[in-house]
Every structure is written in C-alpha cells, then in structure tokens.
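Limitations
The structure tokens in this dataset are predictions for the assembled complex, not deposited experimental models. Users should treat interface geometry with appropriate caution, especially where small molecules or nucleic acid strands are included. An illustrative entry is reproduced here so readers can see what is and is not provided.
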Amino acid sequence: EVQLVESGGGLVQPGGSLRLSCAASGFTFNGHWINWVRQPPGKGLVWVSRINGDGSIITYADSVKGRFTISRDNAKNTVYLQMNGLRAEDTAVYYCISILEAVCGRGTTVTVSS
Amino acid sequence: EIVLTQSPGTLSLSPGERATLSCRASQSVTNNYLAWYQQEPGQAPRFLIHGASSRATGIPDRFSGSGSGTDFTLTISRLEPEDFAVYYCQQYGSAPLTFGGGTKVEIK
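Predicted assembly:
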C-alpha cells in the first residue's frame, strides 16, 4: 500500500523549533518529489515547500523562507521539515504529499502558542 | 505566482445530481499540472485527480477532470452521500505551487 505518515507535531512556544517527519512506504521513494502543505484552523490548504528525488532542488513559500528547511534521507524513505523561529501564524495541520503517487498523509498538528 | 480561483464558493445539490466545479488560473498551468482534492470535515485531503484528468487509484469513475491552459473542471456525475465535502484544485506546474480557495458541495 502506498502510504505517507507524518509525525513530529506538537505545542511549541513562539520562536521555538520543531522537526516534522514524513515516512513513505509502498513506492520507489527516491525518485519522487515530496511536498509539504499546511492547513491553518478553519482555512484552506497552503503549499509550504517541496524537494525533488535526490534533494538537489528545493523550493519554499515566501512565508517560511529562511525559517524552514526541507531535507530527505532516501535510505530511510523519509522527508523532514525543520521549522525554526515558529510564529503563531504557523499553527496548522501539516501534510506531506506525493503528487506522482497521488497520495497525501493524514497530517500532524503544530500549535505555536505561549 | 499563479492564482487559482474556484467557483462557485458553495454548491447546493441533492444526491444523484451532477456537480460541476470550476478552477480558473491567472496564467496557463504548465503541462496542465492541475490536481483536485476532496476534504471531508476533520479529515486529511484525499487525492482525486492529477494531470488535470487522470484519476488517482481507487477513485470512482463518477469523478472526472477536464480542461487545459487556464480553465479546469471537476465533474461528479451523480452525487453520492459521501461526496458532500470541500474540493480544492492545485497547480504544481510552477513554483510556488498554489491552491484554490475551495468549493463546498453541500446537501440541498
């Protein structure tokens, strides 16, 4: 079964850090772009970042550039999102998506609050 | 940045009726790299369509995608009770990737 599973979310204070993980199974992971998207409470989907199969091409939304870092470990079939300098507006459910495999994970919740 | 505008914002229909959802892009979507997602309340998005018209694995054939360039459509031929949800389009042909604001399909 093709699957993506996110983890690493939680409650963090403003200015804090979290690292999200997206573990893949059921497909040839190292050939695929992986995207992170997020959904603030009660709002729509917003794209955050993407990384290509070998990690050589990375793109970020302007709202997270300089604060978030995407990376991948193909030996572990996992993509990471390191989030630093977190703000209240980063509060959201974070999903990872493989468009080629047409699969979306179930999400992990990040809450930034004092 | 490509802006995606979905219409209508809300579609009120009865089970068995046909639903037609529109997604219009502010500029041409590269290679027609346009996806559709379905999201029920409290659930993760479910991938429906990629490449404007290719159904994802396991998606019923009552869902179909069409269009090219700047105008795309998601059609649900006969609404089932489980189809009442919010639908999003997304373009992935150029960065930054962008989503439309969503169309809510509600029971009339």
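Some entries come with short summary sentences. For this one: The longest strand of chain A covers residues 18-25.
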